[in-house]
Write the structure tokens for this entry.
Amino acid sequence: MYLLGYDIGSSSVKASIVEAQSGKCIASAFYPKQEAEIMAPQDGWAEQHPEMWWKHLKLATADVLSSSHIKKEGIKAIGISYQMHGLVCVDKNKHVLRPSIIWCDSRAVGIGQQALHDLGTDLCLSHLLNSPGNFTASKLAWVKRYEPEVFEKIDKVMLPGDYIAMMLTGDVCTTISGLSEGMFWDFKENKLADFLLHYYGIDASMIADIVPTFGEQGKVTKMAAQELGLAEGTPVAYRAGDQPNNALSLNVFSPGEIAATAGTSGVVYGVSGQINYDSLSRVNTFAHVNHTHQLNRLGILLCINGTGILNSWMHHNITPSLDYPDMNRLASSVPVGSEGLVVLPFGNGAERVLQNKELGCSIHGLNFNKHNEIHILRASQEGIVFSFCYGIEIMKQMGLNIQHIHAGRANMFKSALFRDTLATVSGAMIDVYKTEGSEGAAKGAGMGAGIYQNHNEAFASLECLAHIEPLVSQRDEYLSAYQRWKSVLNKELSIIK
């Protein structure tokens, strides 16, 4: 018995087949082999053709079926993870009307800010738990304003994962989790955010029917089965955005647990049991995969833009002859606190955690007689960790009791220096696992199809590769370095106010 998971990213589409009983991934593939094209017709825009996702999904499916040598009838459920916040518009014939406006497109920022001003901060935050911002609803409002001929033809709007599910099953549907990430969900009233739809002039009929995150959401049609080489009637039983799905992949379901990633950008995603929000919108709140009307499970999402991209910049410009493990070892030879050197890692655009200020990356306290490139390497990794901890403090103010961090063994989490610093400053234990989003989506499908009774059974095979405890004996040193970093940050923020 097997499970198939898809991860629809902006750079590639990944597919994984998991053997249900053992929980082991037996085959994975991704397409394209080079990063997928992101179109930018104007500065700040980012679009992709949904048909391209489907094309790459077909290629990835063919690859995993071929390499796994299993019969198509052996696949008992399909799960979908997808890039969040995108907008897909289709007409009554389910034809795509325009390229998808994807997550990193910023054209609707002004529209969302105006909505926040007109509707009021209290109303938006108490009902949406976020500013309307640059999310899917605001992107749809942009289409209405600037492409009225397209808007008039829209029958349904979807998120990227909803589009893939439609192509698989023929059914147009979405989830509460998906609606919440698009700013279409009113948490206070437990229904569609009618007040925002009315403000934007969007008819509620455009919103797809709601299905549970876990459960049968449709079955693979004859046409899709022929295109993909799958069995007709295979159920699609799970879908979620990439960050909630990453948390699921790491078995993060309960309040106080958080999932962290540190690739090009860094994400800390914590689960809360309370309906809450940050009054300054420095972090975002969405429905987690196991949120229901009866059980509040909210995902609090912190994103730091300048994470792995800073580490990569250091690698290519400071130590180009070294590989990352050697670079990490060199950085670890410098004392905690980098002998007073401080790096602010915010050189990859405006940071939401800094209230959308664009601070830039900067080095402070450089002493020509004491510091060298190795100090800069350590101070950079410490600066990245400290930016995580700065955001975690906001999450704690929202009521999260953060004790346990789950992370995949990838990117910055391969660095012992990074892991030890994060554990010690945050005071949380860190467990590092080997898993991918497409594998998590496959296991989510197993839960939705009733093959697994609960998440603990689904992720019983999740292997912990490393367990990191806070370095209690050195915590004062680490906290002193963090306070020094915060002082520099606050000084810089006061300058650009």
